[in-house]
Amino acid sequence: GAELEAVRDRIKQLLHEQDAALVAHYYVDAELQRLAEETGGCVSDSLDMARFGKEHAASTLVVAGVRFMGETAKILSPEKRVLMPTLEAECSLDLGCPADEFNAFCDQYPDRTVVVYSNTSVGVKARADYVVTSSIALKLAEHLKARGEKILWAPDKHLGDYIRRQTGADMVLWDGSCVVHDEFKAGALLELKAKHPEAAVLVHPESPAAVIDLADVVGSTTQLVKAAGSLPNPTLIVATDSGIFYKMKQAAPGKTFIEAPTGGHSATCHSCAHCPWMAMNGLHNLLTTLESGDNEVLVDEALRVKALRSTQRMLDFAK
Ligand code: 13P
Ligand code: SF4
């Protein structure tokens, strides 16, 4: 209603006054995605969020997503002020890969090239040779394999296993997973496919292997949004966070979208596949952040400089 409209207007005014760009992930509230669109910010996957933040001229970046996304922005743009609606938004992959344990793991495999997913802390990125996101992980593994390099991969075991199966690269995997994608169930998905023979299945590679094996398209969130628009199928079954439907519906108006089944599916839960940390971002804490200047992302400078090498390699490789 009118109150919501006033909050939206106030946020737009503050973004403008503070020379700030809003950078949002597809999994955050549709209201935030819409604001990012309307104010010249961006809505994208984690690679394009990093690129946009680095290239944009704004002196402040407001990152609506989870902590590693804000930290990546700060690693790449230390001169910019980076704010987040909340600093409490974690990621199970990041939480499941503490830097000290990760360093000990790497010490066991000194001959391997260390490739980490961007869903990690600055300390983990500081130890890595390369940072990747799901959109370029396969390509980088192929590239390293062609150079005869062996890989240490962390932290997502499903994505690591998918890359290993696709490329045949020699990889050791850290044992981590995403709490959202780990819940998709292959058996129920098979039944759903049988009911909808006209449907294509879109899967994010953080899902279990048995779910990936049922996919028509496997890719990062941006790749899945693009596939939704370009595939001829009138119906799309989607195995990723339900926040993505805001953009998918824009990309493919008129198509029918069905959420892939999760273990937690019930009559009371219409969007079980939704990241609890992404859900912590909202219009009200965005407004409070802009008004107060609180929730600034700060990273240790010595770690940042180390993490910049592997993170910059991600951008260079993605070119
Ligand atoms: P994308 O890079 O595909 O956007 O993935 C980020 C993420 O957190 C998926 O759960
Ligand atoms: Fe992390 Fe999964 Fe949430 Fe993405 S959806 S931020 S991988 S917990």
Automatic annotation (TrEMBL):
Its protein name is: Quinolinate synthase
Q: Which Pfam families match?
A: NadA
Q: Per the UniProt record, which EC number(s) apply here?
A: 2.5.1.72
Q: Which organism is it from?
A: Thioalkalivibrio denitrificans
Listed InterPro entries: NadA (IPR003473), NadA_sf (IPR036094)
Top EC class per UniProt?
transferase
Q: Does the keyword Transferase apply?
A: yes
Pathway(s) per entry = Cofactor biosynthesis; NAD(+) biosynthesis; quinolinate from iminoaspartate: step 1/1
Required cofactor names: [4Fe-4S] cluster
Coiled-coil boundaries: none
Which GO molecular-function terms appear in the entry?
4 iron, 4 sulfur cluster binding; metal ion binding; quinolinate synthetase A activity
User: What is the top-level taxon of the source organism?
Assistant: Bacteria
The GO biological-process annotations, alphabetized, read as: 'de novo' NAD+ biosynthetic process from L-aspartate
Q: Which NCBIfam families match?
A: nadA, PRK09375.1-1, PRK09375.1-2
